[in-house]
Amino acid sequence: MPQPPGTLTAFQNPIWVGGKPWETNRNYHAHNLHTASYQGSQHLAYSKLSRSADGLNNTNANIIMNSHYEMVAELLKSHDLTELDPHEFELIDNGTKVIQLGRIRRPSDWPYGKDGVIGESVLQLVDIATGDVEFEWRSLDQVPLDESCHTYPDIDYFHLNSAAKDSEGDYIINGYHVCTIYKINGTDGSIIWRLGGKKSDFTMLDGYELMRMHHIRIRPLDSIKLPTALRAQVTDTTHLALSIFDNAVIRPSAGSSASIVVLLDLEARTGQVVERYVQPDGMFGALFGSVQFLPNGDRFIGWGGQRSISQYTQNNELVFHAELADAATPTFSYRAFIGSWVGLPTTNPDVFSYSWTCTWQTTMYASWNGATEVRSWRFFGGVSASGPFKLAVAVNKVGFETRAVASFFASHAYVEGVGWDGALLGRSEIVATRVPRPDLAAYCNEFRCDQKINWTEADWFQHCRSETLNILGIVAVQAVLE
C-alpha cells in the first residue's frame, strides 16, 4: 500500500503525517525522509516514488520542504535518465548540492535480466539552484555484468542504494546486487578500490563476509569504538571507518541482520568489524535499513523491512526498541532517524466535536498536523455557529490527537493551540457537533462511534441547538432538534 512520509516523537506519537500537503492524490511511496540543512536552516527532504506502467519503480521527484511544510525545491530526473532512484537523496556542501541516484534502462541478453532489459545505476552530483549535473557516474562504464551476485530475474544488475562523498572529493558507493562497496574517483569515475563481492581488494581479518548491504557512511575515527591494541596505529591517512547496515539475508550463519562498523587499513588492504549491533528479535531484513550515530555516542538503527527501530550504546546495551507495525501490516520504513525538528504549519488546527445525543456532554478532539510547538489546547463550545462561545476546557497536548470532554452540550466548537510561552499559535475553524441518529446511537458510546460502520453524512444530526439555562459562571444547557 502507498506509504506517505511521517515523523515520530520519541514515544511514537506522530508529528506530521502525509505527502505533499498541497496534493489530494497521494498514491505513492515516500523514501528516506530526513532533516537536512538547506539555505541556512533545517528542512525536510525525501524521495517521492510512484509506479510506472510496467510495474517497475519510478521516482517522480526528490523534494525539499521548509518548516512550514512548503516545497522549496523539487529535483527531477536529468540527462537521459529513465527514472530517478529513491535510495539516496543527500544534501551536501552546506545544502547547495545534492547526491541523487537514477537508472537507465538498456536492452541486454544478461541471463538474469527482465524481458531483455537491465537497469544501469547512475550517481549524480547536482547543483540545487541551477539543476546542473556537476558529476555523473554510470555503473556499466566501470562494473561489468559478471560482477553481479544476483541470481534471479531482476532488471537491476547493480542496484546502487547508498552514496557518500569523502574529504578527498571521491565517492563511497554500495551496490546491493553486486555485494560490493566501491570507492570511485570523483573526477574521472574510475574505481579506486572494492570492498566485498567477487573482486574485493581487502581481506577481512575476522573472516566477516560482506554481501547484501545498505546505508554506507564514512565515520570519523574518533567516533568509533577502537580495540585498545589498535588505537596507537590508526590515523586518518592510513585508516577509514565505515558504518554499514548488513542485511545478511543470504548468510544464515550471521544470526540476524546487524548494524556494523568496519575499520579498513588502507595500506595493508585489510578490514575488520569493530562494532556490531544485532536485530533484537534475531530477524533478517532483506529490504532497506539504516544506522545513525547520535551525539551521545549511541547508535540508532532502522531495521527496514522488519518495521522496527532500536537504539544501542557503544557498549552494545539495548536502551530502546520499538515495533512500527506488526507483520500483517503492509508497511515498511526505508530508513529511520532521530533528531530535533520544529514544524510550523501554515494550516489551521483541526477539531472534531462529538456528542452521543443532543443532551449529552460534548467530546472534542484536537490535532494539528506537523505542529511541534503546541503545549496545550483550549476548547470552546457555543450555542450556534455564530456563538456566543465559552471556554469549555483547557488541557495539555497529549500525542498527535488530544481528547477533552466539556461539561455541557455544545452544538458548535473550535479549538486554540497554545505555545510554551502562553502565546496563541493557531485557531481552528468552527465546526458543528456530530451526533448520531437515534437509531444508530447503539453503535456509539460517550466518546465515539464504531469505526466499522460505514457512516455517511445522512447518519448524523449536525444541527442540534443549545439553549443556555444558566450563564452565570457555570453553563448548563438543554438541546433540542431544529
TrEMBL record:
InterPro entries: Arylsulfate_ST (IPR053143), ASST-like (IPR039535), Quinoprotein_ADH-like_sf (IPR011047). Pfam families: Arylsulfotran_2 (PF14269). This is ASST-domain-containing protein. It comes from Lepraria neglecta.
